[in-house]
Amino acid sequence: MARPRTARNRSPVSKQESYKFKFSDVDWTHKISDCPAYYPTLQEFDDPFIYLQKIAPEASQFGICKIISPVKASVSAADVLKKEIKGFEFGTYRQPLRLPKWNANDTGVFFSGERKHTYDTFESEAIKMLKRQSPRLGDLPPSYVEKKFWLEMTHGRKGTVEYGVNIEGSAFSSDPNDQLGKCKWHLKTLRGLPQSIFRFLEHIIPGITDPMLYIGMLFSMFAWHVEDHYLHSINYHHSGAPKTWYGVPGHHALQFEKVARNQVYSRDILSAAGEDGAFEVIAEKTTIFPPKILLDNGVSVYKAVQKPGEFVITFPRVYHAGFSNGFNCGEAVNFAIRDWFPFGEEAGKRYARLHKMVILPYQELLFKEVSEHEGTDIPSSVKATVLHQIRSLNNALFCLNNLKMPFDYLQNSQGSFVCDLCKRDCYLAFTECKSCQRYTCLFHEFKSRHCSCGYNRVVLLRKDIQEVEVVAKKFEEEEIMSRHLNIISCIGEGLARNS
Questions:
Q1: C-alpha distances out from residue 207 to 9, 199, 229, Å
Q2: Core-most of 72, 184, 214, 400, by most CB within 10 Å?
Q3: JmjN domain spans which residues (predicted)?
Q4: Domain with CATH 2.60.120.650 in the chain
């Protein structure tokens, strides 16, 4: 979780001050259109990824969508967390109910709560919070609660709420009679399904491959953010009060970042140029600002009011935020299918520019997927991604060969490595210094074959790299990329030799 920034130059005026509004001004909430909601039949609901691919062409244009499950849980989340999981406790974050000025002296930060909670103790705190605000809020429609939330935030009072976030575990029941717990939409089983890209991973990543729980109270908020590596996400609402979501379609992601940079953040807290600077601050997941700012600047925003028994899907590179309407329990996890690969490539480029550590071995996942499925069912956008990756590697390998850098083979059993310079994941080819054991990706300007420690670098090629290139050439021969030049191969020239 983010920490407060150190002070640099003081910004005398907050850009958000012009957006402080009076009670009547919250009518802008009615201008946000609802995202689509889908009601699959039991037959359609049988396979999550087949159904998601069916609705994606339409739903992805909105950034988020709801799916109302035709299968209901027979064991409540409360019973799972109190009876099936022994000793269930969780920590919380305290969230201020105000909008920060977003300058060097006032940035968004959530503080760790003072105590651990059980499900029951947190519910008691949530009831107290509701009574402090208004006992009637629990009986009022989400549209009213939404207005009340933004009034609280913009008035800048000193109140706080608690939110249990990133709690490892699942509230889907293990009871064999629970139909929801047995179905493929159980979030803990998604990673192993045949169409899941995560099936190639040999380890779990909490929150990405394995679900986490989110237990909230009135006005508990999740800040504006995009998923790691621009992944999809799926969130199931187990129980309690509704949750209000806002989503910005992926094709408006850059516009979102421009608005955040120009209308929300002071320049003295941006460490990188352009939209990358805003992306870095947003990535701390403490940025809350009214969607009105986006609407005023021509950025599309859609809304979902999620109730128990409903899934919310966010598509790749979709910025989203929201808040709870009262005590509730949700569960979320990321997922990736083939359509994600072009987005993952763009995320990787940005991570490398910012020297941001990768979480997923993108290149390894890409080439394992296409090597396993060489058929024509692979989307053309994924084939284009493979071709781009192979061309980039070949261009880099030619340059390194001209430096007379020795080439050697790497055992296929070894996984991905991380570039010491830009933190990019490396799988098919990279350099290694045998002395200091530093790994470097091929996308840096090498002026000599010498490492900074003085020893020679060696280019390591995975033994099956030529098989991957054969797949790429097959894609090219299908003429799906007619405007591209032929692949000029350095890989196929047999340059690997003992160093």
A1: 36, 15, 13
A2: 214
A3: 35-76
A4: 15-338
